[in-house]
Amino acid sequence: ETGVTQTPRHLVMGMTNKKSLKCEQHLGHNAMYWYKQSAKKPLELMFVYSLEERVENNSVPSRFSPECPNSSHLFLHLHTLQPEDSALYLCASSQDWGYEQFFGPGTRLTVL
Amino acid sequence: GQQVMQIPQYQHVQEGEDFTTYCNSSTTLSNIQWYKQRPGGHPVFLIQLVKSGEVKKQKRLTFQFGEAKKNSSLHITATQTTDVGTYFCASNAGNMLTFGGGTRLMVKP
């Protein structure tokens, strides 16, 4: 499946580093999402973008900063993360809100 | 906010046995979506139910939406090792798709 791609697939970073996760969807969808998935919690919605506008910020700490330059690309900028931020970060897209979501393979993030 | 609770959290079955996971909410749901996530993989959409009492089938999988639209179930008949994974229900509340905690299915060959 290549509808939604994410890079990098794995990332190890220190708490003082700055890194970015990238997501790209090739499905012509209007909505894109960032989720966090950890062993302790189910899928947690972080951000929702619709037509490049952020429409939902689910009380995410400011050390996570999303960016949506166009409807096909979504970034998650990371800075001064904590070890508890280690998780699988999943990007998804959908035709519009409420429609089925297509997930990317995820970025496995480890914060040391 | 809206929450969907899923039970059981884990289920071990012998290959060939049936399996059911349940999704419950205290509020009326506009719809229910079901996803499957294989070990090491990402969630993959299976189906969406929107009508009260709706039943849909996909081969050995049967999906139901309760009459009151407050619960849903996924039933797998005669499980196979390929059914291994975590099954999530999810429902829309405004802009957000809220996921249940998932049921992790393990199948012993």
State the shape of chain A: globular
Major beta sheet summary of chain A: 7 strands, mixed
| SSE arrangement of chain B, N to C | EEEEEEEEEEE
Put simply, the count of helices of chain A is 0
- The proportion of residues in beta strands of chain B is over 45%
How many helix segments of chain B?
0
How many strand units of chain B? Answer: 11
Task: Give the structure's gist in a few sentences.
The complex is a heterodimer of chains A (112) and B (109). With 112 residues, chain A is an all-beta fold.
Plain-language structure description:
The complex is a heterodimer of chains A (112) and B (109). Chain A has 112 residues and is mainly β. Chain A contains no helices and eleven strands. Chain A has strands at 4-7, 10-13, 18-25, 31-37, 44-50, 53-57, 64-70, 73-79, 87-94, 102-103, 107-111. Chain B is mostly beta strands and 109 residues long. Chain B contains no helices and eleven strands. In chain B, the strands form two sheets. In chain B, strands 2, 4, 5, 9, 10 and 11 form a six-stranded mixed sheet that branches. A five-stranded antiparallel sheet of chain B has the order 1-3-8-7-6, with no helix packed on it. The chains are: A mainly beta (112), B mainly beta (109). The interface between A and B is medium-sized, with 20 and 21 residues.
